Amino acid sequence: MPLSSVRTAIDPLKCVADVADGKTRKHRSSRRNALIARYLEFLANNPNRPLCVTEICVAIGVAERTLRDACVEHLGMGPIRYLTLRRMDQVYYALSCADASKTTVTRVAMDHGFLELGHFSVAYRSLFCESPSETLRRPLYAM
C-alpha cells in the first residue's frame, strides 16, 4: 500500500464525521470532537511510549467505551488500532529517510514504541507489502 494511502486512511482531519441537525447530536458531536482533539494531542505528546487504552483514558479523563465510540465514529477504528497505524506510518517515513549504514530497523521500531519486534515485522509487511529492512535499504529517490 503506498504511503499516501496510509496517510489518507489515518488522517484525522479526513475522518471527522458530519454533524447532523439537532441539538443533542450537535452537542454530542462537539464533545466527541473535543475528546478526539485531546486524544490526538496525548498521542502527539507521547510519541515513543507503548500505550494502553486505560492509560490514555486516565490521561484525557474519559471512560474507555466513550473513547472507543468516539474513535470509531471519527476515525473509523478503535483507539489502539489508530495509534498502531499512526506509528507504523511514522516508522515507514523514518526508515525511508534513514541512512541504512547508520541505523537499524530495531532502533527505529523501538524508538516508535514497538517492543515486540516479531509482531512489528509481520504487521509492517502486511501494511506496506515489504519488510522494514527493504524500506530501509531502498534509496530515497526510488520512492
Task: Give a concise summary.
It is built from nine helices and no strands.
Could you please describe the fold and organization of this structure?
This protein has helices at 3-10, 12-15, 23-45, 53-60, 64-75, 79-97, 105-111, 117-128, 132-137. It has 143 residues and is mainly α. It folds into two domains: 3-78, no CATH class; 84-142, Arc Repressor Mutant, subunit A (Orthogonal Bundle), CATH 1.10.10.60. α1 packs antiparallel against α6, α3 (23-45) crosses α4 (53-60) and α3 crosses α5 (64-75). It starts with a helix and ends in a 6-residue tail after the last helix.
Class based on secondary structure composition and strand pairing: mainly alpha
How confident overall, as mean pLDDT?
83
Which percent range describes the beta-strand content? under 5%
Number of strands: 0
Q: Radius of gyration in whole Å, from Cα?
A: 17 Å
Using the alpha-carbon principal axes, give the shape: elongated
**Separate helix tally:** 9
* Low-confidence runs of at least 5 consecutive residues: 1-9, 12-24
Order of helices and strands: HHHHHHHHH
Provide the domain count: 2
Helix content: 55-70%
For the terminal residues, how far apart are their CA atoms? 12 Å
Largest sheet: none
Key attributes of the depicted protein:
disordered N terminus; mainly alpha; 143 residues; 0% strand; single chain; 2 domains; Arc Repressor Mutant, subunit A
Write the layout of secondary structure elements.
Layout: H1 3-10, H2 12-15, H3 23-45, H4 53-60, H5 64-75, H6 79-97, H7 105-111, H8 117-128, H9 132-137
Helix pairs in contact: 1-6, 3-4, 3-5
